[in-house]
Amino acid sequence: MVNPQMVMYEEEFNQIQTVVDHLVKSANAKSVFIVDKNGQLIAASGDVDSLDTTSLASLTAGNIAATGGMAKLLKESEFATQFHEGERANVYITLVGNRVILVVIFDAKSSLGLVRLRVKKSSEELNHIFEALLRKVQDPNTDSPFAEITDADIDNLFND
Amino acid sequence: MSFINLMAREINCKIVYYGPGLCGKTTNLQYIYERTNPDAKGKMISLATETDRTLFFDFLPLALGEIRGFKTRFYLYTVPGQVFYDASRKLILKGVDGVVFVADSQIARMEANQESLENLRTNLAEQGYSLDKIPFVMQYNKRDMPDIATVEELREALNPTMVPEFEACARTGVGVFDTLKSVAKLVLTELKKGSP
Description:
The complex is a heterodimer.
Chain A: E1 6-8, H1 10-26, E2 31-36, E3 41-46, H2 53-73, E4 81-85, E5 90-96, E6 100-106, H3 112-138, H4 151-157
Antiparallel strand pairs in A: 2-3, 2-6, 4-5, 5-6
Chain B: E1 3-5, E2 10-18, H1 25-34, E3 45-48, E4 54-67, E5 70-78, H2 86-92, E6 98-104, H3 110-126, E7 136-141, H4 151-158, E8 165-167, H5 176-193
C-alpha cells in the first residue's frame, strides 16, 4: 500500500489518555494535546471545550513541519522543542519519538521549568505506547476496520 | 496518511489542493466553506500575506457523513502557489491522502500549469509517493475567462493518464463540489483497497 494508515485502538487510546490526563494535573497545565505530525488530533485533556482543537492541531503540525524544515537547512536533524510565551497563555511543544507532537498550554499557575520536567517523563511513556501501537498497526494479522466496507457504502456517502 | 480512530469511530483524511499561483485553490476552499452546513465544518484558517496571497496554507476541516458508523472527516489544505514557496509546499504534502490539481485554463498560464504539475510530481516523489498511484483529480478552473485553452488542449498537456477531470469556475462554484466528491471517493476507495 502506498499510504499506510494509522489506526488507534481502544487499549492504546486509553493508555494515551491516562498519560495526558495525568500530565495536565502534574504540570498544573490548562490543557494538553497529542497531535499527529500530519495535523490530526489524537488525544486532548484539560480545559479543551473553549478551544478550537482541530485548528490548533493543524497549526501545531504546520509549525513543527516548518521548524523541521529550518532544522534541515541548518543541518540539524530536528528542533525537538518549542516554547511560545504569551501574556496569559504559554505553549510548550515537543516531539515525541519523532512521530507525534505533545502540546502543553499553561498559564501563570505553572512554570516552564515544571512543564519541561513533567513533559520529559510523559514523553517517555508516550513513546513506549506509540511504539507498541505502530507494531500492532503493521502486524498483517490485525483486522482492518475498513475491510467490510463496500463500494456501495462509499457511493451512499455521496448521494445528495 | 489517513488516521482511523476506533475509539471515536472516526476516519481522518488529508486532501491537498495544488496548482500554480492565482489558479483558484483558496477560492475552491472558500466556496466549500461558504456552502457547507455549519455543523459539518470547522473554522477555515488562511495563513496569507497582507495582500491575501497564501503564505503557508489554507486549512478547512469538513465532515462528510458516516460510513458504517464511522464519521468521515476530511482535512482540506491548499499550498502557496508562487514558485518561490517550494519549501512550504513540500511540508504540506506530508501525509497526503489525495491531491486536487487546480489548473488555470487561461492560455497565458499554460506554462505555469505544467511547471506546477511537474513540481507536484517531484515533491511527492521526495516523500516516497507517486502521482500515478495516489488518489488524484484534475480541475480545469476559470472556464468563464476569455482566452482560455480548450479542454482537449488542457487534457493533452496536463492529464495524459486521464484521471477524473472537471471543468470549474471556483468563483461561482461550478465544478467545485464535483471535484471534492471525486477526490474524497477515490481516497475512501484507496483506504478500502489497503485493508488486508
